[in-house]
Amino acid sequence: MTAIWLTADFKFQEALLSCNHLPYPHTGEVICKELFQILESWNLKSTTFTVVTDNGINMVKAVCLLKENYLDQIQHQSYIMHTLQLSVMEDLKQCKAFHHQIKSLQIFFRLLK
């Protein structure tokens, strides 16, 4: 978990708060408890305003549970690069399928000669 904040003179700062092994299963409940413990250990419960995660259903659920059970003031934001990566990967799948069709047509027309 990393923390990112602005100083009084509006400079970005960031720090690694934790890099823990999280045992399986990685459910929303397990992740929520871990997030809360980290925030509590750093005394950041009252100063955390936004949590940014990927779009994994377990991460979305974890932040939702964190908000419901512990920190009702937090907001959840999805990491835009993860969303973009998912979109690009889906488009690449379609491109590969189209490329395969083109190759098949090329082979077909070569065989007609």
TrEMBL record:
Nucleus found in the keyword field: yes
Location relative to the cell: Nucleus
Top-rank taxon, per record: Eukaryota
One cellular component (GO) term of this entry: nucleus
Record InterPro entries: RNaseH-like_sf (IPR012337), ZnF_BED_domain_contain (IPR052035)
UniProt entry tagged with the keyword Secreted: no
Alphabetized UniProt keyword annotations: Metal-binding, Nucleus, Zinc, Zinc-finger
Protein name: DUF659 domain-containing protein
Major location (coarse): nucleus
